[in-house]
# Entry
Amino acid sequence: MGIYDELLIHSFERACEKYPDRAAIIYIGEKFSYRKMKELIDRFATALYDLGVRDHDKVMLYIPNCPQFLIGYFGAQQIGAIPVPVSPIYTPHEIKYLIQDSGAETVLCQDTNFRYIREVFRETGLKRAIFTNYVDLLPWHKRLVGALFDKVPNGVVQKENNVYSFKDLIYRYPPQPPKVSINPREHLCYILYTGGTTGFPKGCPSTHTGMVSFVEEIRGVGEGYVREGKEVFIMVNPLFHQMAQGVILGMVLGRGNTAVLMPIPQVDSILEAIQRYRGTLFLGAPTLYRMILENDRLNFYDLSSLRYCWSGGDVLPLEVYNRWKKKFNIPIYQVFGATEVGFVAMTPLDKEPVAGSVGVSLPSREIKIVDPNTLEEVPLNTPGELLVTSEYIPKSYWNKPEETAASYVEIDGKIWYRMKDFIRRDMDGQLYYVDRSADVIKCKGYRVSCSEIEAVLQDHPAVVGACVIGVPDAKVGERIKAIVVLKQDARGVGGTELMKWCRDRLASYKVPGYIEFRDMLPKSKVGKLLRREIREEERRRIAKGERTIRV
# Structure
């Protein structure tokens, strides 16, 4: 057995034994001790098994940040099932595809999005739905106050034979899950979804060993700096995202620390939480750091407890880094990676971050920086496409042979993942972000697939072609712009209708902010869309001071 060959939950269980009475989670003012969280996980695992969930079955988690997410995540893994975390704001169009692609038979959802599940239930392979509410696990008096002041969103749930209440299950079943034999090197720990190049999101599976390698290397970066049993982490990032899972397990729940879960990441609520709970650790996208710095009430809050802050999901502008350092006298460290491979690089904590660097590669992640056309390595300080491999990470997508062939390549007997990010490396091993593939947009910390949006637009009966690009924006990284070609006989179709078409089929952060109409799109001799050419054209337009018209 290797050093990472254990179940993902084991580090959390060790923390439960060492710090049973310490708060593992603080959620809407309520503290959940390590002992309590372990009991709730075991109760839910027992319930899932009794409902018929078995080894390798998929359990979709369609909920926001709340204790129920972690209970569902670990509870499924306890009995050998595979959690499939997805965004709670996905539309029926998106959720139907994800259920069918993953093969999920069970879904844990909010009562507020249960209507979406009910809409697609009979068109998918779902066998059961479990619904919960933001306040299901809070004491009765807090639930009453929330109801009286109409502070808690509620959804209507039709009770049926295959529909279950999370709260009822938790209190009906004992914390006695069955013992299931799991091989951490072979058994999947989760399936996460990321944007696809053919118009559909693609599943990224990971074994328990793969995820443990990722989590333990994050833990190693914090060794000697992030204290055990003393830190308070303000958990803003969505738990369905791998970055959040890695940090909360590597820096917090595996170390006996406390996570303050923020269900809705509003800036004033975040600042209040840091002040109230004396938060010491923080992770956010560059957009969030900018929003905090520009908040006109920032000086009313005491954030002096912060010790370490990390940024991920997009490039951190130097201007934001400098303003934060000047304001709070602490730097922002970097994390850099992808859903397919976990973190590739992090900034060491033993010295000030190097300006513009995204850190150094983690020990178990082997990297190459290559010419994207020849796949030959480029010299130091020369930009090239980043390739990553590791014995611990998967070498394919879930049920996507074409996507796998386009994104993974064999070199010298090893399978490498093509990051589609362009990086340069200096002689000290520091990595510097240069550019990304034209196929990917970074908006508000999310990686958005251009092809997915294009596919939705081209499903409209009046659209014959579409091209989606990112328009540089100082506040959110990039805004999404669509260039659309309509059929010759299309009448009365405009940007407003196409925006509504997208909103009905895509999560809100994927909906274009701009739509431009053209007679044709540039394509190569073999008919391939030249997205990068359009992207460069847009950049030249911005450089000249021309404005993009928003629809």
Summary: The mean pLDDT is 90. DSSP finds 16 helices and 26 strands in the chain. Residues 10-265 form a domain with the Rossmann fold fold (CATH 3.40.50.980). The longest helix spans residues 34-50.
